Every structure is written in structure tokens, then in C-alpha cells.
């Protein structure tokens, strides 16, 4: 790192944060050709490492690029603290691109519902939210912050429990009217159940139908929790949903509400990047959001009996 030119690293930072040669060039007051040339020189100084790949949306950091990004931003932050006489804490000054990985349900129904407020408060921070059926791996720097369904057992990671959440059975009134009352879990094998495709589960924590009733199987199966939600709302069958999804939909009714499944979300970051301002900022915001949404996450608004500690 000592042999490198700091201005080359500034070119690297600008391209990493904007993702576009033209945008980085405007930010630096040069032309795009100059940006490209300086990046290639930096790659040569690093022994021929490739720092970016060209994607559909612009230049994307490689694993080597993300490792360098952590080191350069640490230098930038420490320099700003020396020059300014303190730490860089003003949210408006935090720049860069933050990539967050979350399960489809949590990312869609919790994070996305509030992320606009976070983005509006931090206009210089670009955010990628990967909310789908699968997770990006922070240990391989595929994501800056990940919200996982299980605690990772290995890797250079910092992990803490974010929150517990609860799931229940739900159905549409039209389905229950057509199929008759359901008195106990013993009635469920005769019902049309909605659930995951077993061999496409991206986390074993999603395999919970046996906890509802041993040996029960889904007739309607799909890999997406949002698709399952749509099937249940349409009256196609009964399914298990997180309470923060099922309780928000007035067209759904809890079925056998005494049957409650508890799972947890885990907050994971790479140990080398946990102190980056943008990471710390998002983690603090998400932790506060989870506290505000605790009743929804635990299904306490629909809890038919005394509240139990999760």
C-alpha cells in the first residue's frame, strides 16, 4: 500500500462508489479515459489484481476490490479524523455503496417498508438491497451486512442476534368457508397446505411444517414466501407465514393460533468492515427499526393468550 499513489486510490474510491466511469470522471473533474487508465495502473501496482468487472449496471467490485475498499476507507476515515480533529460521524458525509442481504420476507416486509426514510436521511449513500430466496455471503464480501436465519458457524464474521420472530398458520375466509372448520392440527392433513419446495430450501430453518403436525406435506409448493402469501390470500390453501406478514393482511385469518413457531434473525458483518461508518450507520438504524417493530415480529397483536418471552 505504501508504494501506491493516494490520488490513484481516490480514483478507485470514486469509481467504487459511483459504479460508472462517467460519474467518477465528473466527480473527479477529469475524463472517463483518465479514470480507466488510473484504475489499470493501480491494478498493475497490486500485482495484476482485477479490482472491477463490467456489469449491466456499471463497474462492480471484485473480491479483491472489496478487500481494497475496506482498507482504503479505513485510511480515508482516519485521515478525516486527523484533519477534522474527530471521527466522521455526520450521516450526510457518509458516502459509498452499502450492500445488504436479507431473506425475501424480512427484506420485503420490514426493510423495504422503511428504507426510503433511511435513504432520504443519507443522500450520499447508495444502497443495494438483495432480498430474495438465498443469501449473499459476508465472509466472501458479497454483502456488507447480512440478515440470516441461522448463526454462521465459521468465517471471519461478527455475528449477533437481531431479533426473534414468530410464525403462524393463516388462511383466507373464503377457503375456510368452503372447507369447513379446523378444530386441531389433526385436521390439517385433509386440507390443502401451501409451503416451500423441500429440495429448494435455502435454509433448513424454513422447514417447519413438521413442527405444525408430524408428517404433514404441502400440496402447493413454491420457493418464494411472497408467492406463498399470494396463494394463501387468494384462498388456495392454508400456510405458515411470519406474523409480520400474515398479521398485516386484513384478508387473512390466523388458523389454530395456539400453534406458534419461533425463529431468529442474525445480523452478520465481516470483521474487517464492521467499523466502516456506512455499516455502523445501517446496523444502528436496523436495530432501532427492529425494536419499534417488536410487537409485529412476535405476533403479539394477534396473540390469543398471555404474552410469552421469545
Fold and architecture overview:
The protein is α/β, with parallel strands linked by helices. Among the domains are: 1-88, Winged helix-like DNA-binding domain superfamily/Winged helix DNA-binding domain (Arc Repressor Mutant, subunit A), CATH 1.10.10.10; 164-260, Periplasmic binding protein-like II (D-Maltodextrin-Binding Protein, domain 2). 38% of the residues lie in helices and 21% in strands. It contains eleven helices and eleven strands. The chain has helices at residues 6-18, 21-28, 32-45, 63-84, 104-121, 173-179, 209-212, 225-233, 243-246, 277-292, 294-297, and strands at 52-55, 58-61, 96-103, 125-132, 145-148, 157-171, 193-195, 220-221, 238-242, 253-255, 261-270. Mean pLDDT is 85; it is low at 83-92 and 304-310.
Layout of strands and helices, then pairs:
Layout: H1 6-18, H2 21-28, H3 32-45, E1 52-55, E2 58-61, H4 63-84, E3 96-103, H5 104-121, E4 125-132, E5 145-148, E6 157-171, H6 173-179, E7 193-195, H7 209-212, E8 220-221, H8 225-233, E9 238-242, H9 243-246, E10 253-255, E11 261-270, H10 277-292, H11 294-297
Parallel strand pairs: 3-4, 3-5, 7-8, 7-9
Antiparallel strand pairs: 1-2, 5-11, 6-9, 6-10, 6-11
Helix pairs in contact: 1-2, 1-3, 1-4, 2-3
